[in-house]
Write a structure and sequence with these properties.
Helix content: 25-40%
Distance between the termini: 72 Å
Radius of gyration: 24 Å
Number of strands: 20
Number of domains: 2
Number of helices: 11
Shape: globular
């Protein structure tokens, strides 16, 4: 009896120890694995490690993704732009197109899809030149299971030609007509035009979406689904300028204000694209729009774009100084409190590159512990994977 108890105890210890490895990070910013007893089973070597599913976890090295098993053995060499967890023995991988690999890393369904979802009950939903369909584990279409297609937006035979169009309010002073001074300031560095032009090169919009900088009677910016238009209040631009003037002056003030404006603008563009493309959301639309803006500015090798997200966070931190007394109405609002939004942005920026942006944590700009640091990395990677997949059908192909 004692031997049986000892055997069961050892077996249980073995299961707990090896079935639930936990990522940990060393001082150099590399990630390894520890078992449930705290013993190292894989010394730190990767830039990021996600959660385990079906015995495998995705790992990132030099911005490429692969997989390890629960013992820390690399089973799929990091070679993909992004990956999804294994499901029914297959994982979605992305390198410009999506396809499927098995646990040994063998490509079993070629990378030929614009969008591909994980397998469930022996089938997976995919989007390619033939529209939405379901495939089996050999890559063959399953007849009679085609997903419903929209005919009004992205899957019409005619190529969408819509664009975001910047519009600026004019002011009349006597016989003189001029652009509002706040707009003149943020236009001086040309970033607004460049950013909007880049968005037009990236997305296939089903219709034109005006972006109007004008007086709206409030310090606000919003997308109107009924009018299919973004209104950006000049009152908000002025407020950003005045608020950031506490920390900046001259051209730095103009640049900081423009960066904050651009981040908020892309938040509203997120709302516009979610509506235009009929993107299904399972959670909060405001968080989704924030994540869209963060995704566009951080999912790039251009670190200058990261600064736009950081300036957006800085603006929200300044706004939080006004929230000394938090009402029940503010807590029930669809938007998070300003400081929460700021920390969420900073968390994603940190998660993109913990080494480059480690100062956010060490200087307590982003007050998070080691557990939350790992969460930021995972959340950033999940965000990139999700938005890349959701936007793929409406992203213009490079010639």
């Amino acid at each position: 009896m004692v031997r049986i108890i000892l055997f069961l105890t050892c077996s249980l210890f073995s299961i707990v120890t090896y079935a639930q490895p936990r990522p940990f990070k060393n001082l150099a910013g590399k990630w390894g694995l520890k078992n449930a007893a705290g013993l190292i089973i894989m010394h730190p070597r990767y830039d990021s490690i996600t959660y385990f599913k079906e015995g495998y976890a995705a790992v990132m090295l030099n911005n490429q993704w692969g997989f390890i098993n629960q013992y820390g053995v690399e089973t799929v060499r990091p070679a993909y732009f992004s990956v999804q967890p294994f499901s029914e023995g297959l994982a979605v991988v992305f390198n410009g197109r999506m396809g499927y690999i098995n646990t040994a890393g063998t490509v079993v369904i070629p990378l030929r899809y614009n969008v591909a979802f994980s397998f469930s009950n022996g089938k997976a939903r995919v989007f390619d030149a033939n529209g939405w369909n379901y495939i089996d584990k050999t890559g063959k279409y399953i007849t009679g299971n085609a997903a419903p297609q929209r005919t009004d937006v992205a899957q019409t035979t005619a190529a969408p030609t819509g664009k975001f169009k910047l519009l600026y309010a004019l002011e009349r002073r006597g016989s003189q007509v001029s652009v509002h001074p706040a707009v003149t300031a943020i236009r001086s560095n040309g970033i607004l035009e460049q950013i909007v032009a880049s968005a037009n090169e990236l997305f296939r919009l089903p219709y034109d979406i005006p972006v109007a900088f004008r007086k709206i009677g409030a310090k606000n910016a919003f997308y109107s689904p009924s009018q299919k238009r973004i209104d950006f209040g000049l009152e908000l631009v002025e407020d950003l300028y005045n608020t950031l003037s506490r920390n900046y002056s001259g051209q730095e003030l103009i640049d900081a204000t423009t960066d904050a404006v651009v981040f908020i603008l892309f938040h509203e563009m997120g709302h516009a694209l979610i509506h235009a493309f009929d993107i299904p959301l399972s959670g909060d639309g405001e968080e989704a729009a924030d994540n869209f803006a963060i995704y566009l500015f951080t999912n790039s090798s251009n670190n200058r774009l990261d600064l736009i997200a950081l300036e957006g966070a800085q603006a929200f931190l300044h706004f939080s100084e006004r929230e000394k007394v938090i009402s029940a109405t503010a807590l029930a609002d669809e938007h998070l409190l300003s400081k929460q939004r700021a920390y969420r942005i900073l968390c994603k920026v940190y998660g993109k590159d913990p080494q480059r942006y480690g100062y956010l944590v060490t200087k307590n700009i982003l007050p998070i512990d080691e557990r939350r640091q790992a969460g930021c990395v995972q959340e950033y990677n999940n965000m990139v994977r999700s938005w890349t997949r959701l936007l793929s059908p409406w992203t213009k192909k490079k010639q």
